[in-house]
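Sequence decides. Our protein:
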Amino acid sequence: MQEVSSILITGGAGFIGSNLALELQERYPKAKILILDDFSSANFKNLKKFNGEVLACDVSTDEVFFKIDDFQPELIFHLASITDTTVTDQELMMRRNVDGFKNILEIAAENESIVVYASSASVYGNVKEHVPLKEEREKSPENVYAFSKYIMDNIAKDFSEKTGLKIVGVRYFNVYGPGEAHKGKFASMIYQLYLQMRKNKRPRLFKWGEQKRDFVYVRDAVDATILAKEAPETTVYNIGSGEARSFNEIVALLNKYLGKDLEPDYFDCPYDFYQEFTQADMSKIKKELGFVPKYNLEKGIKEYVEILEGKIPHPVGGLK
């Protein structure tokens, strides 16, 4: 493994960011790691095992340049953004997500850093056909969050062409796993259903629970994110499991691993816009970087439940 001396992680106290920080700490024990986070959607408890420096910072403001000061990152993992898809304030979403990204790219240009940033599968929009989604397919963002990520992808391509920097987007599908509890109602559907069933409540699903999603365990998402820095050039990769699985299957697996037998409580979907199906085509990252997910839904939910139930520790930090 090639040694890395300095790593900047924005949004490093959040769900994926904290898992990433702890894994990088394990893999690069000699590296200096700096985390910037405004703690608007984060929890310090996620970083109790982190040994580096953590600074409060909104990267969409000029304070980011002062907070970085003389830190010269060789690698930048940019995960800071508003991730609440229900936010309708378009100016706020664009300022925080897009302006923040542009600030980070300026820092990268000054230091000739490799940048890996969080994109999102939401850029694909409400796909009608049930087929794996390839990175190059037409984009159709349905809300301002998805639009902000779509514009970030465009900016990354243009900035790379101007500067020669390598800027790699990781297009996350439905990530779940330890470290998401602080997100409350915005945590994964798997965690929401676990909480209901843990209290012996019937799990609530939109009729009839056959909606399918590509659920990717956070440890796979982190592995792919770190590997993305090895991309041969500026590009974007899907980060998923490569499988579309139904909510009914999640309930069945949670019943199995919790030792319960709870029937779903089906109700009408109240939303005009609702994705019925997502599935990542993972062929590009497999071909270019050799990445293959280690966790299917069965293995991921089993490990997650064991961590939540206190039966095993989180492999890199004891997160719940």
Observations:
- The domain at 6-176+218-240+277-294 is CATH 3.40.50.720 (Rossmann fold).
- The CA atoms of residues 37 and 247 lie 32 Å apart.
- The first strand starts at residue 6 and ends at 10.
- The chain has a mean pLDDT of 95.
